[in-house]
Amino acid sequence: MTARKFETSLPAAAKYGIGAVVTIGLLAVLNPFYEVDEGHVGVVKRFGEAVEQTDPGLHTLIPVIDEVVPIEVRTRKNVEKHAAATKEQMPVTVEVSVNWTVDKSEALDLYKRYGSLDQFENRVLDPRLRAATKDAISHYTSEDLIKNRIAAVAEAMDDLTRATQDFPITLDSLQIENIALPVAYLKSIEDKQTAKNRAAEEEHKLAQQQLQSQQRVNTAKAQAAATREAAEADAYATRQKALADAEAIRQIGDAEAAATVAKIKAFGSAEAVVRYEHIKKWNGTLPTTSLSGEAGVLMQVPSAQ
User: Fold this and answer.
1) What is the pLDDT of residues 197-233, one digit of tens each?
2) 137: how many CB neighbours lie within 10 A of its CB?
3) Is there a contact between 81 and 95 (Cβ–Cβ < 8 Å)?
């Protein structure tokens, strides 16, 4: 009885097992679940028609019938390299980039109108980026582009913003990554800069020479001034000494005159003063000669024994 029961229950268990395997197989083949990664939205296509947009996370779809296309809504960078011409018609090769973002709420509409983001770049963004860059560069000379690239970038950004204002995107920034100028022009710039450097060097040497010359002039002027001041000082000292000597002589003369006047007053006459001075200077020796009054003959006077 037990064996018979086991035999009758075996087919049912096998049936459930087969059903489970079939179900798992169908789920694996006809997976009704899908995920949308962060930074993207999902565009659900049903029989090839874009019908709805889904946010990041886990969602379900109708197997076989539905298809999901991920659309990135983070900032993308698109780079273009193309030829352009400057204001003086000099050919240049420009590498320009633009950072742009799909408006998340309108990703479904963008896909319906233009397809994938790569298709949108190829059909819409890239041609307008090239046109805006070429137009901006044509307003600047080669030298201006080197010195003031920011102005050209700003103008290109304004042009591209106007050209894409009706599309569901946001332009974040535009950059002119590189400007390749002709080799001959670069050589001319190098030569020009070299000439400027040499001229600046010569000007510097001339300025140094002028400075040294001025320093020598200043030194000579200082030395001349010092010599003149020294001479003036010597002359002043000599003049002051002469004045002092003259004053001393005057004072001595005044003193001697006063003394003579005093002596005259004391002796009664100038003749008496003369005799006094003579006696004062006499050393006690009598004269050895005298003049004879008759014929002016010089006679020897005998000395006292």
Assistant:
1) 888 888 888 898 999 989 999 999 999 899 888 888 8
2) 25
3) yes
Q: Which of 3-17, 159-173, 233-247 has the lowest mean pLDDT?
A: 3-17
Please, what is the end-to-end C-alpha distance for the chain in angstroms?
Answer: 211
> What are all long-range contacts of 41-48, with beta carbons under 8 Å and residues at least 24 apart?
41/70, 41/71, 41/73, 41/104, 41/107, 41/108, 42/68, 42/69, 42/70, 42/71, 43/68, 43/69, 43/70, 43/71, 43/107, 43/108, 43/111, 44/68, 45/69
Pairwise CA distance, residues 79 & 211, whole Å = 55
Q: What is the dihedral of CA 116, 122, 123, 125, to 10 degrees?
A: 100
Q: d(Cα 191, Cα 194) in Å, to the nearest integer?
A: 5
What pLDDT, in 10s, does the model give residues 15-33?
A: 566 665 555 555 555 678 9
Residues β-bridged to residue 91? 85
